[in-house]
Each structure stands twice: as structure tokens, then as C-alpha cells.
Amino acid sequence: MPFVPALHAEWIKIRTLRPLVAGLAAILVVTLAFSAIAAADSDRSDPLFSAFFGVSLGQIAAVAFGATAVSGEYRGGALRLTLAAVPDRARWFAAKAAAVALPVLAVGLVTGLATLAMGRALLGASGPTWAQGLRGAVGCALYLTLMALFAAGLTAVLRSGAATLGLLIPFLLIVSFVIGDVSAGAADFLPDRAGQVALHSGWDGALGPWSGLAVTALWTAAALCAGAWCVRRRDT
Asked: What would the DSSP string read from start to end of 62-86?
């Protein structure tokens, strides 16, 4: 099967499974909700991060979406049927990754722009400038997409969405902050901390907004390559 029909088949799976559709909606809802709370109770020291604070929790929905989209293939022999239709495993995995990335990118852009508009409304004159805000909105979309793909690649390695979420959620919510407090220089290169530099007005570390996203992209590429290798060499 060529790539485009394979991508179409994967998109049909995503849009017809309610948990996946709910996961996409949760990215928008969770990010907006927690951004509103942070903006309403902010000290305005970093107006851009005050507006986009909810991305720190919205990323959990993105991670869950990426993990769930891939883990369904490992239940009930679904992967055998998928590979019978698309024998080229690399092509199938590329189609799966694209089917994960495209809707998250679209939802991420909507989320970023809506969060920016809400943040400027709540923060008023102390809110981020439009230039900062548009960079934050684009960074929001790219970051959420990269984290969803990171989870998708890791799920292909672990063959379990529960294992992926059990590893990533504590890391994103707890471990990364602990490492950051102990060793700020090294922690700046963790996938979440690097990518979220784009959501700050200024940053004292070694990375800038786009170089930080590039570091997250490298982590994501490594996870996807590992997942592709496992699909080609191990999974049946």
C-alpha cells in the first residue's frame, strides 16, 4: 500500500476512536483552563509563560494521545492485520507518526492562538507583546506535537501505552523539576525543559526558543527511530 492510502487508513482509526478524539480535545481544554488560572494569579514576572503556563499540563494530554494512538496496535492482534495491509513496516510506522503529528499540530496551533488571546485579555497591559505571543503560539504547537511523537515512539519500543504513561507522566510532572533544581545546566537539555524555553519571555540558560525546540526534536527523532527499529525487527 502506498504512503498516502496508509496515512488515510491511520487517520480513519484516529478520528473514529472516541478516546483519541477526546485526547485531542483535552489538549485544548486543559491548556486553556490552567493558563487562565495562572494568568489570573500571576506575578507578571514572565508574562509569556504566565499566558502559556497551561501547556505544562496540556502536554500530558498530548503524550496520552500519542501513546494511545500507537498502543492500540498491540491489543488483540491488531498489528498483524495492519501489517497484512501495509507490509512495508517502515512505511506504516511513518504513516502512523504522521497521523499522530498532523492533528496535534492543528489542535496545537488553535490552542496556542486561543491561549494567547486569553492571556492578553487577562493580563492586560502587562501581558506578552504580539511578537512574543505569536512565537509562543507557534512554539506551543510545535512542542505539543513533538511530545506526542516522543510518546508514540516510546510506546512502539515498550509496546504498552500504560508503561509509556507510567514513565513519562511522573518524569514530566516531578522528575524533571527535581533534576532541574539539582543540576540546572544539564536539565536544560531534557526534552520538556528544552522545548518549553519557547514559552518564556527570556531564558538564562544555554538554549534559546528555537534551539530548545531543536533539542526536543532530537529527543523525538531518537524515540521514533528506536520505535521504527523495534517495529521492523521485533514486532509481529
From this structure: HHHHHHHHHHGGGSTTHHHHHHHH-
C-alpha separations of 113 from 42, 118, 141, 204 in Å: 20, 9, 9, 26
Copy the grid coordinates of residue 195.
Answer: 522545548
pLDDT digits (tens, 9 = 90+) for 189-210: 899 999 999 998 877 778 889 9
pLDDT tens for 137-182 read: 999 999 999 999 999 999 999 989 999 999 999 988 887 767 655 5
- Reading the block at residue 120, the C-alpha cell is 492578553
Radius of gyration of the chain from its Cα atoms, rounded to whole angstroms: 18
Cβ contact 235:100 at 8 Å? no
At residue 17, the 3 state secondary structure works out as: coil
How many alpha carbons lie under 13 Å from residue 221 in its C-beta half-sphere? 6
Q: How confident is the model at residue 122 (pLDDT cuts 50, 70, 90)?
A: confident
Length of the chain: 236
Distance separating alpha carbons of residues 161 and 140, to the nearest angstrom:
24
From CA 153, how far away is CA 217, in angstroms rounded?
Answer: 12
